[in-house]
Design goal:
mainly alpha; four-stranded mixed sheet; two-stranded antiparallel ribbon
Length: 558
Protein backbone atom coordinates (compact mmCIF):
# COMPACT_ATOMS: atom_id res chain seq x y z
CA UNK A 1 0.00 0.00 0.00
CA UNK A 2 2.88 2.34 0.70
CA UNK A 3 4.05 2.12 -2.90
CA UNK A 4 0.81 3.35 -4.43
CA UNK A 5 -0.83 6.75 -4.57
CA UNK A 6 -4.58 6.26 -4.81
CA UNK A 7 -6.14 8.76 -7.16
CA UNK A 8 -9.59 10.08 -6.27
CA UNK A 9 -10.90 8.87 -9.60
CA UNK A 10 -9.56 6.97 -12.56
CA UNK A 11 -8.70 3.46 -13.56
CA UNK A 12 -5.02 3.16 -12.63
CA UNK A 13 -2.94 3.69 -9.51
CA UNK A 14 0.37 5.43 -10.18
CA UNK A 15 3.62 4.24 -8.57
CA UNK A 16 5.45 6.85 -6.57
CA UNK A 17 9.21 7.39 -6.58
CA UNK A 18 10.75 4.71 -4.34
CA UNK A 19 11.34 5.56 -0.69
CA UNK A 20 14.81 6.16 0.65
CA UNK A 21 16.72 2.91 1.17
CA UNK A 22 17.11 1.27 4.51
CA UNK A 23 20.67 2.58 4.69
CA UNK A 24 19.31 6.05 5.40
CA UNK A 25 20.72 5.92 8.94
CA UNK A 26 17.43 5.95 10.80
CA UNK A 27 18.79 4.36 13.97
CA UNK A 28 18.59 6.89 16.84
CA UNK A 29 22.16 6.30 17.92
CA UNK A 30 23.51 7.52 14.60
CA UNK A 31 21.17 10.35 13.72
CA UNK A 32 23.27 13.08 15.28
CA UNK A 33 26.21 12.26 12.98
CA UNK A 34 24.29 13.38 9.92
CA UNK A 35 23.78 17.07 10.79
CA UNK A 36 27.29 17.12 12.26
CA UNK A 37 28.81 15.94 8.97
CA UNK A 38 26.64 18.34 6.98
CA UNK A 39 27.75 21.27 9.13
CA UNK A 40 31.39 20.18 8.93
CA UNK A 41 31.34 19.90 5.14
CA UNK A 42 29.63 23.24 4.64
CA UNK A 43 31.86 24.89 7.24
CA UNK A 44 35.06 23.81 5.50
CA UNK A 45 33.63 25.03 2.19
CA UNK A 46 32.68 28.37 3.73
CA UNK A 47 36.15 28.70 5.24
CA UNK A 48 37.79 27.91 1.90
CA UNK A 49 35.62 30.40 0.00
CA UNK A 50 35.85 33.26 2.49
CA UNK A 51 39.61 32.99 3.01
CA UNK A 52 40.06 32.78 -0.77
CA UNK A 53 37.81 35.78 -1.34
CA UNK A 54 39.72 37.85 1.22
CA UNK A 55 43.04 37.39 -0.58
CA UNK A 56 41.98 37.75 -4.22
CA UNK A 57 41.89 41.02 -6.12
CA UNK A 58 39.10 41.61 -8.68
CA UNK A 59 38.95 39.16 -11.55
CA UNK A 60 38.27 40.38 -15.07
CA UNK A 61 34.47 40.22 -14.92
CA UNK A 62 33.87 41.24 -11.31
CA UNK A 63 34.27 45.04 -11.59
CA UNK A 64 31.67 45.06 -14.37
CA UNK A 65 29.15 43.21 -12.21
CA UNK A 66 29.94 45.22 -9.08
CA UNK A 67 29.67 48.51 -10.95
CA UNK A 68 26.35 47.52 -12.50
CA UNK A 69 25.11 46.24 -9.11
CA UNK A 70 25.89 49.58 -7.48
CA UNK A 71 24.11 51.36 -10.32
CA UNK A 72 21.03 49.15 -9.88
CA UNK A 73 20.77 49.55 -6.11
CA UNK A 74 21.69 53.23 -5.81
CA UNK A 75 20.38 54.79 -9.02
CA UNK A 76 17.68 52.27 -10.05
CA UNK A 77 18.49 52.39 -13.73
CA UNK A 78 19.25 49.85 -16.43
CA UNK A 79 22.15 51.08 -18.46
CA UNK A 80 25.27 48.91 -18.27
CA UNK A 81 25.96 45.20 -18.86
CA UNK A 82 22.75 44.22 -20.69
CA UNK A 83 24.26 40.89 -21.78
CA UNK A 84 23.57 39.59 -18.27
CA UNK A 85 20.13 40.00 -16.65
CA UNK A 86 19.96 41.82 -13.32
CA UNK A 87 19.00 39.26 -10.66
CA UNK A 88 22.50 37.93 -9.93
CA UNK A 89 23.84 41.48 -9.87
CA UNK A 90 21.05 42.50 -7.50
CA UNK A 91 22.27 39.77 -5.14
CA UNK A 92 25.80 41.12 -5.46
CA UNK A 93 24.35 44.59 -4.97
CA UNK A 94 22.98 43.58 -1.58
CA UNK A 95 26.56 43.10 -0.39
CA UNK A 96 27.70 46.27 -2.13
CA UNK A 97 24.95 48.23 -0.38
CA UNK A 98 26.11 46.93 3.02
CA UNK A 99 29.60 48.19 2.22
CA UNK A 100 28.07 51.68 1.73
CA UNK A 101 30.45 52.78 -1.04
CA UNK A 102 30.80 56.26 -2.45
CA UNK A 103 28.91 56.43 -5.75
CA UNK A 104 29.53 58.95 -8.52
CA UNK A 105 26.15 59.39 -10.30
CA UNK A 106 27.72 61.66 -12.91
CA UNK A 107 30.04 58.97 -14.28
CA UNK A 108 29.39 58.38 -17.98
CA UNK A 109 31.95 55.76 -19.09
CA UNK A 110 31.48 52.22 -20.37
CA UNK A 111 30.83 49.21 -18.15
CA UNK A 112 34.50 48.29 -17.75
CA UNK A 113 35.47 51.80 -16.67
CA UNK A 114 32.38 51.99 -14.42
CA UNK A 115 33.66 49.18 -12.20
CA UNK A 116 37.22 50.48 -12.05
CA UNK A 117 35.92 53.98 -11.26
CA UNK A 118 33.87 52.62 -8.35
CA UNK A 119 36.70 50.50 -6.96
CA UNK A 120 39.71 52.73 -7.47
CA UNK A 121 38.70 56.30 -8.27
CA UNK A 122 35.82 57.10 -5.91
CA UNK A 123 37.58 56.90 -2.56
CA UNK A 124 36.46 53.33 -1.78
CA UNK A 125 38.58 50.53 -0.30
CA UNK A 126 38.69 47.92 -3.11
CA UNK A 127 39.51 45.06 -0.69
CA UNK A 128 36.54 45.79 1.55
CA UNK A 129 34.12 46.48 -1.28
CA UNK A 130 35.01 43.30 -3.17
CA UNK A 131 34.64 41.15 -0.05
CA UNK A 132 31.17 42.50 0.63
CA UNK A 133 30.22 41.98 -3.02
CA UNK A 134 31.37 38.36 -2.87
CA UNK A 135 29.66 37.40 0.39
CA UNK A 136 26.12 37.05 -1.05
CA UNK A 137 27.43 34.66 -3.73
CA UNK A 138 29.28 32.67 -1.07
CA UNK A 139 26.09 32.41 1.02
CA UNK A 140 24.09 31.33 -2.03
CA UNK A 141 26.70 28.72 -2.93
CA UNK A 142 26.39 27.21 0.54
CA UNK A 143 22.58 27.13 0.23
CA UNK A 144 22.88 25.26 -3.06
CA UNK A 145 24.86 22.67 -1.13
CA UNK A 146 21.70 21.99 0.86
CA UNK A 147 19.79 21.52 -2.41
CA UNK A 148 22.38 18.96 -3.50
CA UNK A 149 21.99 17.23 -0.14
CA UNK A 150 18.18 17.17 -0.27
CA UNK A 151 17.99 16.03 -3.90
CA UNK A 152 20.49 13.20 -3.40
CA UNK A 153 18.80 12.09 -0.16
CA UNK A 154 15.48 11.66 -1.93
CA UNK A 155 17.15 9.50 -4.57
CA UNK A 156 19.76 7.56 -2.60
CA UNK A 157 19.26 7.98 1.14
CA UNK A 158 21.47 9.63 3.71
CA UNK A 159 24.73 7.97 2.73
CA UNK A 160 24.25 9.01 -0.89
CA UNK A 161 23.31 12.53 0.19
CA UNK A 162 26.47 12.93 2.26
CA UNK A 163 28.54 11.63 -0.64
CA UNK A 164 26.94 14.16 -2.99
CA UNK A 165 27.45 17.01 -0.53
CA UNK A 166 31.10 16.06 -0.01
CA UNK A 167 31.77 16.13 -3.76
CA UNK A 168 30.04 19.49 -4.04
CA UNK A 169 31.86 21.01 -1.08
CA UNK A 170 35.28 19.85 -2.28
CA UNK A 171 34.81 20.77 -5.96
CA UNK A 172 37.64 23.19 -6.84
CA UNK A 173 35.56 24.82 -9.59
CA UNK A 174 32.59 25.41 -7.30
CA UNK A 175 34.80 26.82 -4.54
CA UNK A 176 36.73 29.00 -7.00
CA UNK A 177 33.71 30.56 -8.71
CA UNK A 178 31.43 30.42 -5.68
CA UNK A 179 33.85 32.77 -3.90
CA UNK A 180 33.67 35.45 -6.62
CA UNK A 181 31.11 38.15 -7.34
CA UNK A 182 30.20 36.47 -10.63
CA UNK A 183 27.10 34.79 -12.03
CA UNK A 184 28.15 31.27 -13.02
CA UNK A 185 27.46 29.39 -9.77
CA UNK A 186 24.21 31.26 -8.95
CA UNK A 187 22.76 30.48 -12.38
CA UNK A 188 23.78 26.81 -12.19
CA UNK A 189 22.40 26.51 -8.66
CA UNK A 190 19.03 27.95 -9.65
CA UNK A 191 18.74 25.43 -12.50
CA UNK A 192 19.54 22.58 -10.11
CA UNK A 193 16.98 23.88 -7.62
CA UNK A 194 14.33 23.98 -10.35
CA UNK A 195 15.07 20.40 -11.38
CA UNK A 196 14.91 19.21 -7.76
CA UNK A 197 11.51 20.87 -7.33
CA UNK A 198 10.31 19.27 -10.56
CA UNK A 199 11.31 15.90 -9.17
CA UNK A 200 9.29 16.64 -6.04
CA UNK A 201 6.38 17.65 -8.27
CA UNK A 202 5.89 13.97 -9.07
CA UNK A 203 4.18 13.81 -5.66
CA UNK A 204 2.74 17.32 -5.39
CA UNK A 205 2.42 19.14 -8.72
CA UNK A 206 0.28 21.97 -7.40
CA UNK A 207 2.81 22.83 -4.72
CA UNK A 208 6.09 22.33 -6.54
CA UNK A 209 5.51 23.25 -10.19
CA UNK A 210 5.14 27.00 -9.51
CA UNK A 211 8.18 26.91 -7.25
CA UNK A 212 10.18 25.12 -9.96
CA UNK A 213 9.15 27.83 -12.39
CA UNK A 214 10.31 30.50 -9.95
CA UNK A 215 13.71 28.82 -9.62
CA UNK A 216 13.98 28.51 -13.40
CA UNK A 217 13.07 32.19 -13.73
CA UNK A 218 15.81 33.05 -11.24
CA UNK A 219 18.31 31.20 -13.45
CA UNK A 220 17.07 33.02 -16.57
CA UNK A 221 17.20 36.34 -14.72
CA UNK A 222 20.83 35.66 -13.77
CA UNK A 223 22.41 34.34 -16.98
CA UNK A 224 21.06 34.22 -20.51
CA UNK A 225 23.09 31.05 -21.12
CA UNK A 226 20.49 29.08 -19.13
CA UNK A 227 17.83 29.62 -21.84
CA UNK A 228 18.52 26.21 -23.49
CA UNK A 229 17.38 24.56 -20.25
CA UNK A 230 13.85 25.98 -20.59
CA UNK A 231 12.41 23.34 -22.97
CA UNK A 232 14.11 20.58 -20.97
CA UNK A 233 12.60 21.74 -17.69
CA UNK A 234 9.19 22.31 -19.25
CA UNK A 235 9.29 18.72 -20.50
CA UNK A 236 10.29 17.50 -17.05
CA UNK A 237 7.40 19.45 -15.60
CA UNK A 238 5.03 17.70 -17.99
CA UNK A 239 6.51 14.32 -17.06
CA UNK A 240 6.06 15.04 -13.36
CA UNK A 241 2.39 15.93 -13.84
CA UNK A 242 1.89 12.83 -16.00
CA UNK A 243 3.21 10.59 -13.23
CA UNK A 244 1.12 12.33 -10.57
CA UNK A 245 -2.14 12.21 -12.55
CA UNK A 246 -4.76 9.61 -13.24
CA UNK A 247 -7.68 9.53 -15.65
CA UNK A 248 -8.12 9.26 -19.37
CA UNK A 249 -5.10 9.72 -21.58
CA UNK A 250 -6.49 12.94 -23.03
CA UNK A 251 -7.06 14.42 -19.58
CA UNK A 252 -3.57 13.46 -18.44
CA UNK A 253 -2.05 15.03 -21.55
CA UNK A 254 -3.93 18.26 -20.92
CA UNK A 255 -2.72 18.33 -17.32
CA UNK A 256 0.86 17.63 -18.40
CA UNK A 257 0.78 20.45 -20.95
CA UNK A 258 -0.72 22.76 -18.34
CA UNK A 259 2.06 21.84 -15.93
CA UNK A 260 4.70 22.74 -18.50
CA UNK A 261 2.91 26.03 -19.08
CA UNK A 262 2.87 26.80 -15.36
CA UNK A 263 6.64 26.34 -15.20
CA UNK A 264 7.14 28.65 -18.19
CA UNK A 265 4.75 31.36 -16.95
CA UNK A 266 6.31 31.43 -13.51
CA UNK A 267 9.78 31.71 -15.04
CA UNK A 268 8.74 34.60 -17.30
CA UNK A 269 7.13 36.39 -14.36
CA UNK A 270 10.36 36.17 -12.34
CA UNK A 271 12.41 37.63 -15.21
CA UNK A 272 10.03 40.59 -15.47
CA UNK A 273 10.09 41.01 -11.69
CA UNK A 274 13.91 41.19 -11.69
CA UNK A 275 13.86 44.10 -14.15
CA UNK A 276 11.04 45.84 -12.27
CA UNK A 277 13.08 45.58 -9.06
CA UNK A 278 15.80 47.65 -10.71
CA UNK A 279 13.51 50.22 -12.31
CA UNK A 280 9.71 49.98 -11.90
CA UNK A 281 9.30 52.10 -15.04
CA UNK A 282 11.53 49.74 -17.07
CA UNK A 283 13.46 52.57 -18.68
CA UNK A 284 16.11 51.18 -21.00
CA UNK A 285 18.91 53.36 -22.36
CA UNK A 286 21.86 51.09 -23.22
CA UNK A 287 25.30 52.61 -22.87
CA UNK A 288 26.85 50.15 -25.34
CA UNK A 289 26.04 49.31 -28.93
CA UNK A 290 23.38 46.64 -29.39
CA UNK A 291 24.02 44.73 -32.65
CA UNK A 292 21.27 43.86 -35.08
CA UNK A 293 20.37 40.18 -35.21
CA UNK A 294 18.71 39.16 -38.46
CA UNK A 295 17.17 36.02 -39.88
CA UNK A 296 15.58 33.28 -37.84
CA UNK A 297 17.56 34.13 -34.71
CA UNK A 298 16.42 37.73 -34.85
CA UNK A 299 12.81 36.63 -35.29
CA UNK A 300 12.98 34.28 -32.32
CA UNK A 301 14.59 36.92 -30.10
CA UNK A 302 11.84 39.36 -30.99
CA UNK A 303 9.15 36.82 -30.03
CA UNK A 304 10.51 36.09 -26.56
CA UNK A 305 8.11 37.31 -23.83
CA UNK A 306 10.80 39.21 -21.94
CA UNK A 307 11.60 42.91 -21.40
CA UNK A 308 13.34 44.71 -24.23
CA UNK A 309 16.50 44.99 -22.13
CA UNK A 310 16.61 41.18 -21.87
CA UNK A 311 16.15 40.75 -25.60
CA UNK A 312 18.89 43.31 -26.25
CA UNK A 313 21.11 41.31 -23.89
CA UNK A 314 20.59 38.26 -26.11
CA UNK A 315 21.51 40.36 -29.14
CA UNK A 316 24.71 41.51 -27.42
CA UNK A 317 25.55 37.87 -26.65
CA UNK A 318 25.10 36.96 -30.32
CA UNK A 319 27.41 39.84 -31.19
CA UNK A 320 30.04 38.54 -28.78
CA UNK A 321 29.76 35.08 -30.33
CA UNK A 322 30.62 36.59 -33.73
CA UNK A 323 33.91 38.09 -32.58
CA UNK A 324 37.26 36.45 -33.54
CA UNK A 325 38.33 35.13 -30.12
CA UNK A 326 41.54 33.24 -29.39
CA UNK A 327 41.84 30.05 -27.36
CA UNK A 328 44.65 28.09 -25.72
CA UNK A 329 44.58 24.36 -25.14
CA UNK A 330 47.45 21.98 -24.32
CA UNK A 331 50.06 24.54 -25.33
CA UNK A 332 48.40 25.45 -28.63
CA UNK A 333 47.23 28.99 -29.35
CA UNK A 334 44.43 29.09 -31.91
CA UNK A 335 41.78 31.40 -33.35
CA UNK A 336 38.11 30.54 -33.11
CA UNK A 337 36.80 27.73 -30.92
CA UNK A 338 37.14 23.97 -30.61
CA UNK A 339 34.07 21.82 -30.05
CA UNK A 340 36.04 19.54 -27.69
CA UNK A 341 37.54 22.39 -25.64
CA UNK A 342 35.20 22.08 -22.65
CA UNK A 343 35.49 18.28 -22.32
CA UNK A 344 39.28 18.58 -22.53
CA UNK A 345 39.40 21.41 -20.00
CA UNK A 346 37.12 19.48 -17.64
CA UNK A 347 39.44 16.50 -17.92
CA UNK A 348 42.29 18.70 -16.69
CA UNK A 349 40.45 20.67 -14.01
CA UNK A 350 38.21 18.04 -12.39
CA UNK A 351 39.63 15.89 -9.56
CA UNK A 352 40.34 12.37 -10.77
CA UNK A 353 38.14 10.76 -8.13
CA UNK A 354 35.29 13.03 -9.15
CA UNK A 355 35.68 12.09 -12.81
CA UNK A 356 35.48 8.42 -11.85
CA UNK A 357 32.33 8.96 -9.81
CA UNK A 358 30.73 10.96 -12.64
CA UNK A 359 31.22 8.03 -14.99
CA UNK A 360 29.81 5.63 -12.40
CA UNK A 361 26.84 7.93 -11.89
CA UNK A 362 25.96 7.96 -15.59
CA UNK A 363 26.08 4.17 -15.70
CA UNK A 364 24.16 3.57 -12.47
CA UNK A 365 21.38 6.04 -13.28
CA UNK A 366 20.40 3.90 -16.27
CA UNK A 367 21.48 0.47 -15.06
CA UNK A 368 19.58 0.46 -11.74
CA UNK A 369 15.89 0.10 -12.33
CA UNK A 370 14.65 2.21 -9.44
CA UNK A 371 16.86 5.13 -10.53
CA UNK A 372 15.76 5.22 -14.18
CA UNK A 373 12.83 7.57 -13.54
CA UNK A 374 15.28 10.05 -11.99
CA UNK A 375 17.87 9.83 -14.80
CA UNK A 376 16.25 12.51 -17.02
CA UNK A 377 16.03 14.88 -14.05
CA UNK A 378 19.68 14.48 -13.09
CA UNK A 379 21.26 14.19 -16.54
CA UNK A 380 19.12 15.89 -19.20
CA UNK A 381 19.54 19.55 -18.26
CA UNK A 382 23.36 19.44 -17.78
CA UNK A 383 23.74 17.41 -20.99
CA UNK A 384 21.82 20.00 -23.03
CA UNK A 385 23.61 22.94 -21.40
CA UNK A 386 26.99 21.29 -22.03
CA UNK A 387 26.23 20.59 -25.68
CA UNK A 388 25.18 24.20 -26.22
CA UNK A 389 28.23 25.54 -24.37
CA UNK A 390 30.50 23.36 -26.53
CA UNK A 391 29.22 25.20 -29.60
CA UNK A 392 30.13 28.62 -28.18
CA UNK A 393 32.83 30.85 -29.62
CA UNK A 394 34.58 31.65 -26.34
CA UNK A 395 36.95 28.96 -25.05
CA UNK A 396 37.62 30.74 -21.76
CA UNK A 397 37.16 28.18 -19.03
CA UNK A 398 35.29 25.43 -17.26
CA UNK A 399 33.10 28.05 -15.57
CA UNK A 400 30.87 27.72 -18.63
CA UNK A 401 30.16 24.17 -17.43
CA UNK A 402 30.11 24.76 -13.67
CA UNK A 403 26.63 23.18 -13.56
CA UNK A 404 28.24 19.74 -14.01
CA UNK A 405 29.75 19.48 -10.50
CA UNK A 406 26.31 20.33 -9.07
CA UNK A 407 24.18 17.87 -11.02
CA UNK A 408 26.72 15.06 -11.17
CA UNK A 409 27.36 15.28 -7.44
CA UNK A 410 23.72 14.24 -7.04
CA UNK A 411 24.24 11.46 -9.58
CA UNK A 412 27.41 10.28 -7.85
CA UNK A 413 25.52 9.93 -4.58
CA UNK A 414 23.17 7.52 -6.35
CA UNK A 415 26.04 5.09 -6.93
CA UNK A 416 25.54 3.93 -3.33
CA UNK A 417 22.14 2.55 -4.30
CA UNK A 418 24.16 -0.44 -5.55
CA UNK A 419 24.30 -2.45 -2.33
CA UNK A 420 27.72 -4.04 -2.52
CA UNK A 421 30.43 -3.67 0.07
CA UNK A 422 33.07 -3.08 -2.56
CA UNK A 423 30.96 -0.31 -4.11
CA UNK A 424 30.72 1.51 -0.78
CA UNK A 425 34.46 1.10 -0.27
CA UNK A 426 35.26 2.37 -3.75
CA UNK A 427 32.98 5.39 -3.42
CA UNK A 428 34.45 6.24 -0.04
CA UNK A 429 38.00 5.99 -1.36
CA UNK A 430 37.23 8.21 -4.35
CA UNK A 431 35.57 10.83 -2.15
CA UNK A 432 38.64 10.90 0.10
CA UNK A 433 40.84 11.22 -2.99
CA UNK A 434 38.76 14.22 -4.13
CA UNK A 435 38.95 15.82 -0.69
CA UNK A 436 42.73 15.42 -0.45
CA UNK A 437 43.24 16.80 -3.96
CA UNK A 438 41.04 19.80 -3.21
CA UNK A 439 42.63 20.55 0.16
CA UNK A 440 46.11 20.36 -1.34
CA UNK A 441 45.13 23.08 -3.81
CA UNK A 442 44.11 25.55 -1.08
CA UNK A 443 43.99 28.52 -1.53
CA UNK A 444 44.69 28.36 -5.26
CA UNK A 445 41.41 26.90 -6.52
CA UNK A 446 41.12 28.95 -9.70
CA UNK A 447 44.28 27.47 -11.32
CA UNK A 448 43.51 23.95 -10.06
CA UNK A 449 44.30 20.96 -12.23
CA UNK A 450 44.32 17.34 -11.13
CA UNK A 451 47.34 15.18 -10.39
CA UNK A 452 47.40 13.58 -13.84
CA UNK A 453 48.20 17.00 -15.30
CA UNK A 454 50.69 18.15 -12.70
CA UNK A 455 48.49 20.07 -10.26
CA UNK A 456 47.87 23.84 -10.03
CA UNK A 457 51.49 24.71 -10.72
CA UNK A 458 51.31 23.37 -14.27
CA UNK A 459 47.82 24.36 -15.38
CA UNK A 460 49.30 27.33 -17.26
CA UNK A 461 50.97 24.91 -19.67
CA UNK A 462 47.61 23.61 -20.90
CA UNK A 463 44.91 26.23 -20.28
CA UNK A 464 44.49 29.97 -19.89
CA UNK A 465 42.04 32.71 -18.85
CA UNK A 466 39.63 31.84 -16.01
CA UNK A 467 41.10 28.34 -15.83
CA UNK A 468 44.34 29.77 -14.48
CA UNK A 469 44.81 33.50 -14.46
CA UNK A 470 41.79 35.79 -14.27
CA UNK A 471 43.61 38.74 -12.73
CA UNK A 472 43.04 37.45 -9.18
CA UNK A 473 46.60 37.67 -7.81
CA UNK A 474 47.54 41.32 -8.17
CA UNK A 475 47.48 41.75 -4.40
CA UNK A 476 49.70 38.72 -3.87
CA UNK A 477 52.09 40.09 -6.48
CA UNK A 478 52.35 43.37 -4.59
CA UNK A 479 53.21 41.48 -1.39
CA UNK A 480 55.79 39.33 -3.16
CA UNK A 481 57.53 42.32 -4.71
CA UNK A 482 57.68 44.13 -1.37
CA UNK A 483 58.97 41.12 0.53
CA UNK A 484 61.48 39.60 -1.92
CA UNK A 485 62.31 42.22 -4.54
CA UNK A 486 62.33 45.66 -2.89
CA UNK A 487 63.75 48.55 -4.92
CA UNK A 488 64.08 46.46 -8.10
CA UNK A 489 62.93 47.75 -11.48
CA UNK A 490 59.68 46.02 -12.44
CA UNK A 491 58.18 45.58 -15.91
CA UNK A 492 54.63 44.29 -15.86
CA UNK A 493 52.27 42.71 -18.40
CA UNK A 494 49.09 42.16 -16.42
CA UNK A 495 45.87 40.62 -17.74
CA UNK A 496 43.02 41.71 -15.50
CA UNK A 497 40.75 44.49 -14.33
CA UNK A 498 42.73 45.56 -11.28
CA UNK A 499 44.84 48.71 -11.15
CA UNK A 500 48.43 47.81 -10.16
CA UNK A 501 49.19 51.24 -8.69
CA UNK A 502 46.26 50.87 -6.27
CA UNK A 503 48.14 47.98 -4.63
CA UNK A 504 51.49 49.76 -4.53
CA UNK A 505 52.97 48.24 -7.70
CA UNK A 506 55.11 50.68 -9.68
CA UNK A 507 55.93 49.11 -13.03
CA UNK A 508 56.52 49.98 -16.63
CA UNK A 509 55.14 48.34 -19.75
CA UNK A 510 57.95 46.44 -21.52
CA UNK A 511 56.06 46.56 -24.82
CA UNK A 512 56.47 50.34 -25.03
CA UNK A 513 60.27 50.50 -24.80
CA UNK A 514 63.19 48.93 -26.61
CA UNK A 515 64.13 45.37 -25.64
CA UNK A 516 67.52 46.50 -24.38
CA UNK A 517 65.88 48.83 -21.85
CA UNK A 518 63.90 46.01 -20.22
CA UNK A 519 66.20 45.10 -17.32
CA UNK A 520 65.36 43.83 -13.85
CA UNK A 521 62.15 41.91 -13.24
CA UNK A 522 59.73 41.03 -16.02
CA UNK A 523 56.36 40.09 -14.51
CA UNK A 524 53.81 38.48 -16.84
CA UNK A 525 50.32 37.14 -16.23
CA UNK A 526 50.22 33.54 -17.37
CA UNK A 527 47.23 34.16 -19.65
CA UNK A 528 49.23 36.91 -21.38
CA UNK A 529 52.22 34.59 -21.64
CA UNK A 530 50.10 31.83 -23.16
CA UNK A 531 48.98 34.17 -25.94
CA UNK A 532 52.29 36.01 -26.31
CA UNK A 533 53.60 36.64 -29.82
CA UNK A 534 56.14 38.96 -31.35
CA UNK A 535 58.17 41.15 -28.97
CA UNK A 536 56.53 39.89 -25.76
CA UNK A 537 57.26 36.28 -26.73
CA UNK A 538 60.86 37.28 -27.44
CA UNK A 539 61.20 39.03 -24.09
CA UNK A 540 59.86 36.01 -22.24
CA UNK A 541 62.07 33.65 -24.21
CA UNK A 542 65.19 35.64 -23.38
CA UNK A 543 64.38 35.86 -19.65
CA UNK A 544 64.83 33.43 -16.78
CA UNK A 545 61.81 32.48 -14.61
CA UNK A 546 62.66 33.01 -10.94
CA UNK A 547 59.32 33.05 -9.08
CA UNK A 548 55.65 32.19 -9.26
CA UNK A 549 52.73 34.09 -7.70
CA UNK A 550 49.54 32.14 -7.04
CA UNK A 551 50.22 29.84 -10.02
CA UNK A 552 48.88 32.66 -12.22
CA UNK A 553 51.72 35.17 -12.55
CA UNK A 554 55.35 34.38 -13.38
CA UNK A 555 58.30 36.58 -12.44
CA UNK A 556 61.29 36.52 -14.81
CA UNK A 557 64.71 38.09 -14.39
CA UNK A 558 66.48 39.90 -17.19
Amino acid sequence: MRDLWIAPAGPRPVPLPPPAPAGALRRPGRRWWVPLLVVALLAQMACAMVTTAVRQTPTIDEPVYVGAAAEYTHEHRLRHNPEHPPLGKLLIGAGVALADPRIDPSFAGDQGRLGRHLLYESGNDPWRLMLWARLPVIALTLLFGLVVLAFARELAGTAGALTALALYCFSPDVIAHGSLATLDVPAAGFVLTSVWLLWRARRGPRRYLPLAGVALGAALATRISTLPAVPVLMALGAVSVWHASAGTRARVLIRAATGAGVVALAAVAVVWAAYVMVDPRLRWAPEQHVPQVRGLRGLLVGLLPFPEAYRDGIRVQFGLENRPWQGFLFGRLYSGSLWYYLPAALLVKTPLGMLGLWVCAAVVMFAVRRLRPAAPYVLAAPAVLLLVAMQGARDFGTRYAVFLPLFLAVGAGCVLVVRRMWVSGLVGALVVFVAVSSLRAYPYYLPYSNEAFGGPGRTRERLHDSNVDWGQDLGRLAERLRERYPDERVWLVYKGSGVPAAYGIEAGDPRRVRDGDVRGLLVVSDSAAAKATGRLAGLIGSSRPVDDVGHSITIYRR
